[in-house]
Amino acid sequence: MTEFTVGDEDFLLDGRPVRLLSGALHYFRMHEGHWDHRLAMLRAMGLNCVETYVPWNLHEPAPGRYADPEALGRFLDAAHRAGLWAIVRPGPYICAEWENGGLPHWLTGRLGRRVRTDDAEYLGHVERWFTRLLPQVVARQADRGGPVIMVQAENEYGSYGTDRGYLRHLVDLLGGCGVTVPLFTSDGPEDHMLTGGSVPGVLATVNFGSGAREAFATLRRHRPGGPLMCMEFWCGWFDHWGKDHSVRDPADAAAALREILDAGASANVYMAHGGTSFAGWAGANRAGELQDQALEPTVTSYDYDAPIDETGRPTEKFWRFREVLEPYRDGPLPGLPPEPAVLGAPAGAEFDGWAPLGDVLEVLGDEETEGPVPPTFEELGVDRGLVRYRVRIPGPRRPYPLRVAGLRDRAVVYVDGARAGVLGGENDALAEPVAGPADVELWVESLGRVNYGPRTGEPKGITGGVLHERQYLHGVRAGALRLDAFGAAAVAKVPFRAAEAGAAGLYRGSAVVEHAGDARLELPGWTRGFVWVNGFCLGRYWAAGPQRSLFVPGPVLRAGTNEVWVLELEGAGAPAGTFSPV
């Protein structure tokens, strides 16, 4: 049993001052078969603690229906075996460049702006979730012999709101669920953020990537006493589709880390290892100070330019950080753990079957609905995937612009069965006018819900309507194709046939592997879609870049034949893909 407390100046472990040298590592962005390796890498870098978020929407896909809610407990056990303390950030909101900031779509779709406030219905859902989640944290607290030393109340709330009653309710709820280790909040080092996000009597920490002296000076204006901690030291950054890859000079990052430690503070390296947003769970952001500009979807890789890269290998930044951290650890640092197995040799993925999107929807999709206006994804109960909207332009009438109002996020449009264009943006029109009568199909994909700021939780799909000239087109049919529908038994029922060159649709293929291990999959010439290997969804690919390949965890592959599915939404490339060793 260990007592971890917050002192007047330091963190205290059984009454003795201790510095927390932590690294962020999300259990849900790694294959469970890699947990032990990644945790050992944290220790080798010089860290004594691991921090993780908990994504509510991953574990409660529908109210009262849970998906592997005990994963956090297994991860905390792995951290304990690795000799690391643990910081848990259970939300309910987490940001994390994760779909909807971790909030369930069924919750934000119903409650809208009432989430993250002292609203009785919202808090009722939070209480149910925390009552289900937190017992595994409570059982693993340090004062019960486990690794958990701190738990966060909400997350960067000062970047969102000022409802102090809500924060106090969460603090009381955490205590009521049995959390006895110290609680904390974390916010940007700005007066308005610390004012909005901190709670009297609860440790306040700050998040930043540089300028430690100025950041801690701001914190001290609000909290004259207590230990200093940078809860998120941003050592890199994340990428958006269609933008440049983000990098940070290792020497510059190491100098910023040194400045934090020289100030006598503790630090949590965000990210120590970023991992991958498998299965389409990557979030999105809105550009502009008021988030009133274009959507910026986040790529599948969450490499983050972290010291431990997406595949678990050390980078130059790892060795620079190790040099900075080593003087703060007792005794020599452990060496690197054995690397995970790597794919023995390149392997081709040959596709021998194809089905058009309409046939796939017929087998795997939800039952089609019909109403006067297009339903949103939330009204259809869809979290990740796409929706086909069908509407008829009456006639006869001369050609007019066909426009979609309130489009989120991207639509491939067909007129009388022929592809007419790809739309993106909230008020977009086809390049060529359309005459009536005509049948219109719009295949709309959610590119990830906004995970930060005032537009978190905004609805997806067509949120306005389809217009011909200025006239709304009514009588809309909608059918959803969810990513979760792609299981082996279901896909086996799809009527595959020979592929049409370059066509959108579901492709089925296989790859023969002699020695399984970590790999990368490339699909040259393919445009945008999702990939599954042996039923495991690797996530979204997109020719827009900057990401050019998908990470394939070694435990997903097997010696012999491996099944590959590719759901291409715009246009296929070469009739093969390539698995390469990492």
> What kind of oligomer do you see?
single chain
Number of helices: 14
DSSP E strands, number? 31
Contiguous low-pLDDT stretches (5 residues minimum) are none
Rg value: 25 Å
- What is the average of the pLDDT values? 97
How much beta, percentage-wise? 25-35%
For the largest beta-sheet, the strand count, sense and barrel status come to: 8 strands, parallel, barrel
What sort of overall outline do the alpha carbons produce when their principal axes are compared? globular
**Termini separation (Å)?**
42 Å
Order of strands, widest sheet: 4-5-6-7-8-9-10-11
User: How much helix, percentage-wise, in residues?
Assistant: 10-25%
Class derived from helix and strand content = alpha+beta
Question: Can you walk me through this structure?
Answer:
- 50% of the residues are buried.
- The longest helix is centred in the N-terminal third of the chain and has 14 residues, at 120-133.
- By secondary structure, the protein is of the alpha+beta class.
- It is built from 14 helices and 31 strands.
- The model has no long low-confidence stretch (mean pLDDT 97).
